[in-house]
What does this fold into?
Amino acid sequence: PYARGVIVGLTRGTGRAHLARAALEAIAYQTVDAVRAVEAATGDPISELKADGGATANTWLMQFQADVLGVPVVVPQVAETTALGAALMAGVGAGIFPQAHVTDLWREDARYEPRMGGDERAALLHGWSRALERSRGRVQRLPEPDELIGARLDRQQAAPGEREHTAHAVLGEPRGHLPAVAELLLVLQKPPRPGSRRGIPAL
It folds into this structure.
């Protein structure tokens, strides 16, 4: 449950292009999860998805989104719809124009129809679900900010020979099994040696 990010299926032939595509695919898969959650909560399936933002400039992503979602994806003429909407609502609130005028300003720029078959879509979504299952519990819980502060205070108050043990105990991990980030935080908290800066050992 504390996993921050996992890349599954790497081989010796994996390159930068594969990682870039995986990042784009993850956007589409997570959107599918969000849409399915909304549909489950409301009981109403969506007939199309209206997308906005900078990602709409990527036509491959928009087509893939339509394919894995199974409904058309519609892109507006003005990609930054959120910013435009805030400005228009301010105009409505100031009485510059009526709200009906705001609705009429929306214009469709592109529509992406699903091209993927049901079997292929199901197989891809199943692979996404398997990747999510593999990510669960793969990253240990990192200490909260207040825990790090408590560890620093305990290190300052403890006897010299007990400081390192106290810090590990507060972080809740036995020595030798701390996450890499926690180990780095402990190193940065140690008193600096002559010739070092900010607690980082001199080379």
